[in-house]
UniProtKB/TrEMBL annotation:
It comes from Saccharopolyspora thermophila. Keywords: Cell membrane, Membrane, Signal, Transferase, Transmembrane, Transmembrane helix. It is found in: Cell membrane. This is DUF2029 domain-containing protein. GO terms for molecular function: hexosyltransferase activity. It is a multi-pass membrane protein. Residues 1-26 form the signal peptide.
Length: 453
């Protein structure tokens, strides 16, 4: 059964997988669209009681919300004419995301006149990326890709923010490395690195996968070698950096202040209720202290970098035992470290993690537990916002909403710690075309280590 789930799908199976994904995307859009209309004010904002409905009915999306406040409704091309004020407010079309996401937002708003139109157009722009992810995961890992197609996160978060394109970049990079095997490893890894560079220009996080990919090339990839390919590894890093620079350069030249403002906004972002990270929920009574906020600006990134170093080092130890550097496993563990320790942990970040549940053979208990904890957090956080906004009792002793939120937040945090270890030990569900071994990424018959937990 497990072997059948890992095999790449036939054309009919891939079509069926994409149909399941399309259904999930349609349900995801229908859920978010409940917040739109039926009336609109002079700015195109849904009425009546938009904010109360968004939180109370759990249909909030950043897409609809950001229709107002970033000049999106005025169809201003992003970054070129704007900047950031002393109090951290963005103006002149600047958005708090990297440049390609800003362009997607502008395109989605181009013909829209209301937040409902903006949501619909944005969903149409992003849905093909969700379908592409399903197709590539099906080709890579067979029916296990149903975790993507039928997972609750796709319904909850597909159109919560602009994350489907960046997930597509990350998955496409894996696909290129492990399916374009008629091309030499350094060349296909370079193409994958370009995709990761494009991902950086969408939401930053794929850039962290460049290091394990470079180490994979350095050590010879699936063939495994003790002769290090330094040139190939540097080529991978250079391609990612070059792509990021080339994409960002026109915006930096056209409006340096506006381009820089998007990065400055994130650097200056404080730990507060909107960040939804363990730093807020664990230290929320300290968040009003400037010293705490300054410390978080140092402690959080240092711990994230430490988790990256640990993941890469463990991956190297596994390479020394097996002969293949586990770049997918290390990438997954690095993402766990980022999600757990970064100042911001938005609900839709689960979409970033979801493909690794497909690509790596972690035990199903891990997957089910994480999806349950995530759903508890993703639903209850907005109900909690609603209670807080309306002045209703919202403490952990006042009802199930706050209790479910704490279960979700801390359950998810604990699972990320466990998944950090489980991912590093897990075999891959991806087998290189032409490889003699399944799930190991090698041509030898050395058995892959079994998953922990």
């Amino acid at each position: 059964m497990i072997r059948r789930m890992r095999r790449g799908l036939t054309l009919s199976g891939l079509v069926a997988l994409c149909m399941f994904t399309a259904l999930a995307l349609a349900l995801g859009y229908a859920n978010k669209a409940r917040c739109t209309g039926p009336d609109f004010d002079e700015w195109g904002r849904s009425e009546p009681a938009y904010q109360e409905r968004a939180y109370g009915d759990v249909c909030y999306s950043d897409i609809q919300n950001l229709w107002i406040g970033r000049d999106i409704d005025r169809h201003v091309f992003p970054y070129v004419h704007g900047g950031i004020t002393a109090d951290g407010s963005l103006y002149g079309g600047v958005v708090e995301y990297p440049v390609l996401t800003g362009v997607l937002m502008w395109l989605g708003a181009l013909f829209a006149r209301t937040d409902a139109g903006f949501l619909a157009a944005s969903a149409l722009l992003m849905a093909p990326f969700g379908l592409a992810v399903a197709w590539w995961l099906g080709r890579l890992s067979g029916w296990r890709a149903l975790v993507w197609a039928l997972g609750p996160p796709l319904v909850l978060y597909a159109f919560h923010n602009w994350d489907l394109p960046v997930v597509a970049c990350a998955v496409a990079a894996v696909y290129v490395v492990h399916r374009w095997t008629s091309v030499s490893l350094p060349r296909r890894a370079t193409v994958a690195s370009v995709l990761l560079g494009l991902g950086f220009a969408l939401k930053l996080y794929p850039a962290i996968f460049v290091l394990p990919l470079a180490l994979y090339v350095l050590t010879g990839g699936a063939e495994g070698t003790r002769r290090l390919d330094v040139r190939g590894a540097l080529q991978v890093v250079g391609a990612a950096v070059g792509t990021a620079v080339l994409v960002n350069l026109p915006f930096a030249v056209a409006g340096f202040g506006g381009w820089l403002a998007s990065f400055e906004f994130q650097a200056r972002r404080q730990v507060d209720v909107s960040t939804n990270s363990v730093w807020y929920w664990g230290f929320r009574h300290w968040t009003g202290d400037e010293g705490f906020q300054a410390a978080m600006g140092v402690v959080s990134p240092l711990l994230v970098l430490l988790s990256f170093a640990v993941a890469c080092a463990v991956g190297w130890l596994r390479y020394e035992r097996s002969g293949t550097y586990p770049w997918i496993q290390v990438s997954a563990a690095m993402l766990c470290g980022f999600l757990l320790l970064h100042k911001v942990h938005s609900p839709q970040y689960t979409l970033w993690l979801l493909p690794f549940f497909v690509l790596l053979a972690v035990r199903w208990g891990w997957i089910v537990a994480y999806l349950v904890a995530d759903a508890a957090m993703g639903i209850s956080i907005f109900r909690w916002f609603y209670l807080y906004m309306t002045g209703a009792p919202s403490g952990v002793h006042d009802g199930f909403t706050a209790q479910a939120l704490m279960i979700g937040v801390w359950g998810r945090a604990a699972l990320l710690v466990g998944l950090f270890v489980a991912f590093l030990a897990a075999p891959s569900t991806v087998d290189d075309v032409g490889s003699g071994a399944r799930g190991t990424g090698r041509r030898s018959v050395t058995p892959a280590p079994q998953p922990l937990g």
